Amino acid sequence: MPRSVTILGAGLVGSLLAIILRKKGYNVTIYERRPDMRKENIGAGRSINLAMSTRGWHALELAGLKEEMEKIAIPMNGRYLHQADGTAAFQQYGKNNEAIYSVSRGELNKKLMTLAEENGATIVFNQRCLKVDVPTNTVHLQDENGKEQTVVADLLFGADGAFSGLRASYTHMDRVNAAHHYIEHGYKELNIPAAKDGGFQMEKHALHIWPRKNFMLIALPNIDGSFTCTLFFPFEGNPSFQSLKTEAEVKAFFEKEFPDAIGMMPTFIEDFMNNPTSSLITTHISPWHYQDKSALIGDAAHAIVPFYGQGMNAGFEDCSVLSALLDEYGDDWKTILDVYEKKRKPNGDAVAQLALQNFIEMRDKVAEPAFLERKKIEKELGKRYPNHFISVYEMVSFSHTPYHTALSCIQAQDKLLARIMQEGDFFHNIQEQEFDLKLDQWINDYHRSVQQLDFGNNA
Amino acid sequence: MPRSVTILGAGLVGSLLAIILRKKGYNVTIYERRPDMRKENIGAGRSINLAMSTRGWHALELAGLKEEMEKIAIPMNGRYLHQADGTAAFQQYGKNNEAIYSVSRGELNKKLMTLAEENGATIVFNQRCLKVDVPTNTVHLQDENGKEQTVVADLLFGADGAFSGLRASYTHMDRVNAAHHYIEHGYKELNIPAAKDGGFQMEKHALHIWPRKNFMLIALPNIDGSFTCTLFFPFEGNPSFQSLKTEAEVKAFFEKEFPDAIGMMPTFIEDFMNNPTSSLITTHISPWHYQDKSALIGDAAHAIVPFYGQGMNAGFEDCSVLSALLDEYGDDWKTILDVYEKKRKPNGDAVAQLALQNFIEMRDKVAEPAFLERKKIEKELGKRYPNHFISVYEMVSFSHTPYHTALSCIQAQDKLLARIMQEGDFFHNIQEQEFDLKLDQWINDYHRSVQQLDFGNNA
């Protein structure tokens, strides 16, 4: 008889995992800290929308939710850059016009919860996990009135986010390594409403970025014609959340830095003054599981900063991998959890690193002409040498290549592109046979240096 | 009026801090988790003896305990190496026959507690800190019967060790970074009793090491003629704590690896089977203090592995530095705690790193003739160029040079010694004028590369 599974957290990853496990015949009960967001008007977590890419879509396909979500997802085919000098630039993400998709976190979560219930999972709301006695798999829960109960889980998953109760309980055990780190920047959500005619005030099919070196504003489209803006900004220093104290200071700052944005943002001053400022955490823990009894998944295992748009995608990929392991190993949960951790932990560490690095790319590098040129060259290389070169961004966003492989390619790609760009205008040079021969050689050098890596399908 | 100070933990650092603060006129109350070790026979913590060096002695001098402790401390002037091939070697620690001192942790702790009380501090025993509400400085305590009380501290120090309650409470706060890491090795204490005549069975004035590459046995002398032995050994693998399961396996292992030791260890098999196996943790946290209200000190701020013998010395140096800051800034605790953290945090991080590196030196490198030769050359360099060269070991153990400076010198010393040793027999070469001139130049190169570092007195 298949085991019963207890899941902590009915967020995106917990709900998706419930669907997958129900489809395999497991009994599933989820304990969720918050009230039912389908009945009560509460925030869906830390951001209003998120960027779904290939890994996320694959997991939604497993759950049978892909087609429905595609209808309400907005493809963003590239970055629309609002440079400090007032110019604009559009930088395509993929060589074949691939897109990442702006999706409402709340809508996605509600649909996943409903689908989990339709598949037979039980969700119990208002149940905060206080702690888990890990060796006995005893979960201590507390409801909204402070009433406590304990549940002994047969098999337990902690899908309860960056501040997971199961993760905290692992952390206190002997020989469990753990670390968490906040970056020096926080974020605040702002808003660009729909135009009066209900349309979009800016290009709809883009992720908008105002890169300003040490900080940035970004905007993602919503289906109602609005954009959700996020200011990523230092907590301290000048300028910073600390230094902008008065409405006048906020107004002057936005007028100086984002003159083209504020015309579309009638409430930016109130929003800035009233909306919360949130911090950004990265977490690491080892091990991720305990015997055949419990495991962490999603943010609970690897909370990351949002700058690669991979938080949910990585969590969903955890679910895809687990699903494949269930097919491979049946009920042998000792092996399943061992292999799950062995496969996913290096990827959790790698995507954390990629996400931190991409902040510098988004807020600073995209403002440089040389960087935009490099991105164009990468796409051309991908077209010319499809079997030998794929850019790191494309690996991360448009493939199932392991994150740790993508991370390992960065240095080799930096070397290759530096060689190419040292020669001057690439799109001129490639018309010359002599350069072409050199390029073949360089691409071969690059390919040799990375070919021992695992480019296998993660899912 | 000076503020009242609450200290968590009456261990070595908490008790010493209490003495220093009482001498400056502060009211001091310590809450200690364990019963009074002067009345009940309990272990004094994680090891029976420890190695006191220059930083520790300086702090004891401030407390007025130096002379008394010197009477019961055993100088160890170097490492006595019991090599795998049956040979022995003695490696002096300092160029001037300096020593580190084997001290009983329990005796030192008892004396510090008594001195704290004699100076007017109050120690409340059997009070476990469950948590601290950091913004209000409210300490939640629980006694041995489970009875809870809260104490609102005016100024609070967490001197409660690697698993500090104050540290845990900091860890849960927004934008506090924390990490802890266990090494792959654990340890087990064993014993070499005194000889029948009450004397020592081995050289008394040495720290004995049986270096065996991936593991080691060490022994420190006690005043009763015995040695406390510690086996540092992998938890897993072969051989490991896991692989040695039966008495026969333990016996065979010791007979193979430590044949010269077991003749002196009549109970090693029982000791191995019965004594606990303990893990070894390194912790980092940032920040170390909260406004002018609370701060971490000693292991609570920077728990480290024991391989440089600097855990207590580093904690005592925290106290010395704090004492000097009290002299400099009076009652301005906002400044005192700011500067304390600024000065000590880089040193806590550095000594953690030094301690991890020294494990490899102790268990592996000391078995190599080239390493022993290098140590001899370092001492000669120190004598010839006293203003330009001092070895990292001597900086750490016999000076007040900041740990982070010592750490920063490693690479430059490695380069210098590699240059020298590449030329062949140093003690022959230095008789040649040509080599002497080259050596002058190399020493100048070394000195130039490190002279921008802070060699100032830490205390």
UniProtKB/TrEMBL annotation, chains A, B:
Tagged with keyword NADP: yes
Residues covered by the FAD-binding domain: 4-353
Domain of life according to the entry: Bacteria
Top EC class of this enzyme: oxidoreductase
Pfam families, alphabetized: FAD_binding_3
E.C. designation(s): 1.14.13.9
Cofactors: FAD
Keywords: FAD, Flavoprotein, Monooxygenase, NADP, Oxidoreductase, Pyridine nucleotide biosynthesis
Catalytic activity: L-kynurenine + NADPH + O2 + H(+) = 3-hydroxy-L-kynurenine + NADP(+) + H2O
Protein name: Kynurenine 3-monooxygenase
Natural source organism: Taibaiella soli
